[in-house]
Amino acid sequence: MKGLIISSIAGFGLIALKRYCNGPMSLYRSANGTDMTGKTVVITGGNTGLGRETALELAKMKAHVILACRDSKKAEKAATELAKESGNPKIEAMILDVSSLSSVREFVREYKQKHSRLDVLINNAGIPDTLPGRAVTSEGYETVFATNHLGPYLLTKELSPLLAASGAGSRVVNLSSGLEAMADLDLDDLQFEKRAYSGVYESSKLCNILWTNELGRRFDEAKNGVLAVSVRPGFVPSTEMSGKTSGGWFYKGIGVPLLWPICKDLSHGVQTSVYCAAAPANKLVQGMTGSSADLHRPFSLCVLTDARFVCMLCVVLCCAVARQVVITLIVLFPNRVTKWVNPLKLPNVCGKSLSRYSTLRPKKPLPARAQRLHRFPNKN
């Protein structure tokens, strides 16, 4: 009974952590009724994952949404589907490969020919550092860093005049990551040419945050009314980017279930992006970097949004549950557990636990059938 109680408490703790990490839906709902008629939004990587979900929600607010994607077929298909789902026909697909600076310039040229305004630019597209080794683009830049930082930087720089011309309240929303806290940024080796090829994703996301802060400062200096914010969507394993994470079957079969308490679904993962794209300008802070927790929870609780702390807490709770499972196995199947442990030659480690838990017996004799089920020896 004691083990059941402890396991139940641990289970409720995991569920509570899950609900906490999902974030308050009040943030999402607070922007959901916004009317964005007449506003133009560009979303990079808007054909899948977080980008697609963000595009859907903004399309429901009657915004003119432009999906900037590198695959024309997938982009056109997503635009057609989103138009049906949202009931908004003003969804357009354009070609953009953010890893290529020439593609970025071509996109900007084409965009300025077709459109005269831009109210919201969401730099959503990105890739993880799961390449087998360091790779470079056709222009000689490290692929992950070029995709996650250099491309969005150039795109924003080239489109800034349109943002400023569209009036106060126009904004840039950059998607960062909580993993930036683990970045080891070396400004003398941003391309990872002189050191081990590890942590480039984290470094690129930290650069996103530093750049957003500086971008906001420059917008303030120019007094053009443009805002720059960055957001942390959280861990959303249902996205295409998470599907490309290294680890294969181990990641999908073991990693994701173990990290379930800190995972978000798409509707929770996009709530901060949607809020920052649609909320009134006076609700945002220039250069801010935030998650749903940062915006709607007291600072004392925001520490739980740190990726390392959440992972540590998750591991502790999982260990507590695993301990109770092991104890239950020892009680129910003492002979089998002994058989498993003996070949490992761990009597000092497991012997006392085995003798302690395997001697647990019900005070009253069980019926013969129950004794066979629970493998308790008949003392009669």
Tell me about this structure.
It is a single chain. This protein is α/β, with parallel strands linked by helices. 54% of the residues lie in helices and 8% in strands. It has helices spanning 2-22, 25-32, 49-60, 72-86, 101-114, 143-165, 200-222, 240-243, 248-258, 266-269, 271-278, 292-296, 299-302, 307-332, 334-341, 347-358, 368-374; strands spanning 40-44, 64-69, 91-95, 120-123, 171-175, 227-231, 289-290. A seven-stranded parallel sheet has the order 3-2-1-4-5-6-7, with helices on both faces. Strand 4 (120-123), helix 6 and strand 5 (171-175) form a beta-alpha-beta unit. Helix 1 packs antiparallel against helix 14 (307-332) and helix 15 (334-341) packs antiparallel against helix 16 (347-358). The two termini are 25 Å apart. 36% of the residues are buried.
Give a short summary of the structure.
It is built from 17 helices and seven strands. A seven-stranded parallel beta sheet has the order 3-2-1-4-5-6-7, with helices on both faces.
Look up the CATH topology of the largest domain: Rossmann fold
What's the CATH class label of the largest domain? Alpha Beta
What is the alpha-carbon Rg in Å?
26 Å
Q: Quick one: how many beta strands?
A: 7
Lateral arrangement of strands in the main beta sheet = 3-2-1-4-5-6-7
Structural class: alpha/beta
Span between N and C termini?
Answer: 25 Å
The H/E string reads: HHEHEHEHEHEHEHHHHEHHHHHH
Query: What helical percentage do the residues reach?
Result: 40-55%
Q: pLDDT below 50 for ≥5 consecutive residues: which ranges? A: 293-308, 343-363, 372-380
Number of helices: 17
| CATH homology-level superfamily of the largest domain | NAD(P)-binding Rossmann-like Domain
